[in-house]
């Protein structure tokens, strides 16, 4: 709770900082801590990032038994789920052209996702404690594209981009259906899933020192087909402010983000970005999950901006 308050205060300070008499200008970045921006990297540029985010969930404890398949046989057992893990998203984004970015990546985990089958031998005697614990794999691969429909032209209108990602892997069975049963009835071999995320995002520059980002998207998953929530609607917002010629502070908020098919809600993030040269920058961010994120940007070719601004990378 205290950590969330510190993050919130930090975001407020970042936005208040717009009134500071600074002499630098912001540079484009394709992503803050968790949200995409409308900016693209530029042809030949790249962004490599990784993070470490904690995820824990109180045990799902359905009070009744449900049918589960173990060793090819279907039996009725009481099943619970335990989650105490870290997810590790790794992403590589490459600028195919000035307006089109390609993203490849994977999300790994540190384990800690278990399904527990109670009274495995159906003795009815709780003193025997005859339960079986099955580890659940949690990982995914992804492929994505982002296209800049309207680049920044210093015409008073925001830059607009649309994008989409396709995911596939194994997720946690952390949702119950309308009968209060787990979605996957086979605890031995994990829970495979595929998902699609589509989004649009806008970026607006205010002078040379401040940029804001806002967008929305829809995440569809094969996992959600068995629930009443067929899709997840996400909205996001963030901002960047220059504090010197080569340093920026950024803040963002995401209502929902999915990693390996698992929902992470209400993520507040703060980041510090430093430009080492005209074509090299790194960013370090933290969020309230808690977790951290690091990214390294190698700038690509971008068109010269109007009104004498720097080249964006």
What does this protein look like?
- The chain is mainly beta and 313 residues long.
- It has one domain (2-298): monomeric porin ompg (Porin, Beta Barrel), CATH 2.40.160.
- Helices cover 5% and strands 55% of the residues.
- The chain is built from one helix and 15 strands; from the N terminus they run H-E-E-E-E-E-E-E-E-E-E-E-E-E-E-E.
- It has one helix at residues 2-16; strands at residues 46-60, 66-70, 73-95, 100-109, 113-118, 132-135, 139-150, 159-171, 191-206, 210-221, 231-242, 247-259, 262-277, 280-287, 291-298.
- A twelve-stranded antiparallel barrel has the order 1-3-4-7-8-9-10-11-12-13-14-15.
- Strand 11 (231-242) and strand 12 form a beta hairpin.
- The longest helix is centred in the first third of the chain and has 15 residues, at 2-16.
- It is elongated.
């Amino acid at each position: 709770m205290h950590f969330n308050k510190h993050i919130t205060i930090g975001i407020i300070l970042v936005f208040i900082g717009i009134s500071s008499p600074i002499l630098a200008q912001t540079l484009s970045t394709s992503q803050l801590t968790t949200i995409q921006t409308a900016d693209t990297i530029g042809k030949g540029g790249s962004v490599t990032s990784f993070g470490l985010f904690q995820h824990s969930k109180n045990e799902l404890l359905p009070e009744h038994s449900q049918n589960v398949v173990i060793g090819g046989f279907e039996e009725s057992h009481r099943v619970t789920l335990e989650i105490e893990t870290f997810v590790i998203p790794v992403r590589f984004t490459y600028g195919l052209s000035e307006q089109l970015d390609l993203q490849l990546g994977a999300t790994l985990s540190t384990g800690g996702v278990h399904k527990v089958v109670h009274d495995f031998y159906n003795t009815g005697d709780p003193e025997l404690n005859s339960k079986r614990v099955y580890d659940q794999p949690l990982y995914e691969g992804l492929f994505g594209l982002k296209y800049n429909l309207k680049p920044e032209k210093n015409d008073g209108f925001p830059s607009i981009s649309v994008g989409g990602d396709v995911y596939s892997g194994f997720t946690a069975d952390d949702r119950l259906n309308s009968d209060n049963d787990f979605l996957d009835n086979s605890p031995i071999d994990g829970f495979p899933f595929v998902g699609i995320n589509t989004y649009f995002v806008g970026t607006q520059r205010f002078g040379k020192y401040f940029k804001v980002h806002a967008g929305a998207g829809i995440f569809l998953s094969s996992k959600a087909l068995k629930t009443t929530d067929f899709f997840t609607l996400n909205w996001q917002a963030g901002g960047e402010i220059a504090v010197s010629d080569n340093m920026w502070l950024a803040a963002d908020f995401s209502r929902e983000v999915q990693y390996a098919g698992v929902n992470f809600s209400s993520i507040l993030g703060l980041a510090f970005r430093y430009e080492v040269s005209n074509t090299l920058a790194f960013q370090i961010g933290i969020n309230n999950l808690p977790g951290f994120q690091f990214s390294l940007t190698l700038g690509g070719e971008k068109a010269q901006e109007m009104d004498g601004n720097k080249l964006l990378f």
